[in-house]
Specification:
The complex is a heterotrimer of chains A (222), B (242) and C (218). Chain B is α/β, with parallel strands linked by helices and 242 residues long. Chain B has 9 helices and 10 strands. With 218 residues, chain C is mainly alpha-helical. Chain C starts with 5 loop residues before the first helix and ends with a helix. Classes of the chains: A mainly alpha (222), B alpha/beta (242), C mainly alpha (218). Chains in contact: A-B, A-C. The structure holds adenosine-5'-diphosphate (ADP) and magnesium ion.
Amino acid sequence: MAYQFSFEAIASNWELLARGVALTVVLTAIGSFVGIIIGTVGAVSRAWTLPLLSQVFTVYIECVRNTPFLVQLYFIFFGLPALGVKLNGWEASVLTMVINLGAYSTEIIRAGVMSIPKGLLEAAESLAMNRWQALRYVVLRPALKNVWPALCSQIVIVMLGSSVCSQIAAQELTYAANLIQTQTFRAFEIYLTSTLLYLMLAVLVRKCLNQIGMRFIERRKA
Amino acid sequence: MQLICVDELHKSFGDLEVLKGVSFSVKEGEVVAIIGRSGSGKSTLLRVLNGLESFGDGIVNIDGKRVSGLKADLIPLRLKVGMVFQQFNLFPHLTAGENVMLAPKVVKKESREHVTELAMEMLERVGLADKFNAYPDQLSGGQQQRVAIARALAMRPKVLLCDEITSALDPELVDEVLEVVQRLAADGMTLIMVTHEMRFAREVGDTLIFMHQGKVHEMGAPEELFTRPQTPELASFVKSVL
Amino acid sequence: MIQFTLWDIVSHLLIGMGWTVGLSFAAFILGSTAGMVMLFARISPNPLLRQLAKIYIEFFQGTPLLMQLFLLFFGLALMGIDISALATALIGLTLFTSAYLAEIWRGCVESLPFGQWEASASLAMNRWQQMRYVIIPQAVRISLPPTVGFSVQVVKGTAVTSIIGFMEITKTGTMIANATFKPMLVYGLVAIGYFLICFPLSAFARRVERRSYATYMR
Ligand SMILES: Nc1ncnc2c1ncn2[C@@H]1O[C@H](COP(=O)(O)OP(=O)(O)O)[C@@H](O)[C@H]1O
Ligand SMILES: [Mg+2]
């Protein structure tokens, strides 16, 4: 083949890529953290069918699950200013990540809450615990533990999906790649590199999340 | 003094009437063994006493207070009535010690030092002081059930309800659990036990209740009932289990 | 400036929606076929084949769809192949779909008790017969809900192809939004378009899941 591969352009722009990687990680971290909190609230209100709140969450989840991330992003970034809500690319990306991970975590954590055997709840009740105490001390941790692998997979999927945030100029990894591409015209090399960076990120994020799961959720030494 | 007084208790699940007017009473320190065929309403009765099930007609009095079925009264009721389940129901994410400490800590808001001491004492009482830091899945069924007993005792209940607590155990593990219960009985704990261990019911029980089709069919001293059953139902039940 | 009536907007979006549905459908059919091949490779007794399939799946599950499309587009261009946005979108989504479906189906096959393999082996079936008569028929039943569920991901994935210039509903929406200065309305309508395609699929997936759970409990 006549084409000469050249990765020099990438090497000289490594700082841009590193910054892109960092921002993708930050985006994912914020999305996961806030998303899991929303997910926990949603899961409990749906599992207990709290009036109003559980319906609100049902509608929210269906809206998020049945529309593409990119369209949500455009709606928030381009559409919301009509309502006076002006967000920059980064803020809109963070918001969309949170909204998505909130919806998916709700579904996943709810499955975890439902997976707790009824007997455990009765044991908590028989020890004079109220609903909140039972939730806080008996249900939540085993529930999260049961669904933690599913939650990790979802976080990785959404992180990879966040690549489209480049479209509204959020300066994450894909944005950096696009920028270098337009400056150097080394399209294949730069996209290959950033693809591999994503692959590494996916592996590392999964590893980290597993560690977090063991450390904070399982919380036991072998 | 009567600790528990149940009068004409009725309970239905939909159209199915499970308890059809149950009456009996239990004195402080008394050990009551309940026997009967599967489906006769034994578990339901215990669950009503612990507020895990609501009930229809009838009066249930525990420690001088009438059980109302109001949500607000559930916690005070359960502070007096402990329960041990057939399936142990230990909290899998907590060690044996933490299982015992949890409710005193979060429900009674007792201090950390105090509940640690308490848990140690309770685990000692069931012979498992050395398993304080073991997780439930590292314990045998018999040990798990003993931890469950310690967990219930840590709340200092006035009465302990035991629903077939040895039924899920391998035969060789039954005795270690029964020994613990026997010691509790000797220490003056009020006990209501649903059991299939007839020898145990006979030797440890002060009173035997034979439930049949949602009613107390016969009640009296165990020795008396086993040797001279008054009804053909009890006679055939005794024959079938001996 | 040209004046757009609401009907103008909607009718253009409907055309884009047609492309979205068509692309999703084609990618799903082709992706299932390729996914079946990947599944057989992934659970084959040949370790090399297994490893290759594993790498394939991990690559497509571990990288963004957008990057896959870029690589495909620019990679083929390097080889001197000029490729349309539609072809890039179709090939890219097919590969993406095949990897996910192969992994979903592997989970279903492996969730069958090992006794099923042993029992069929004890009846002197060869591997192909075991698959054909014992494993696949059971796996298909449990795989229906997650497979239908994944079809929603395929539909949503088609939105990403707008970035490489394929004129499906999102791309159409972007152009109309730019022309009309009504992004809120247009993207709202685009979102409704996706919802109308995806919600029935999600609902159906949930229903078959409940039903298969019910038969399982029986
Ligand atoms: N939650 C419930 N809903 C409907 N029926 C129940 C429920 N719990 C128990 N029953 C029915 O009540 C009857 C008595 O059950 P139970 O008290 O468990 O009997 P026992 O413990 O003596 O075997 C049985 O026929 C059982 O099927
Ligand atoms: Mg029972």
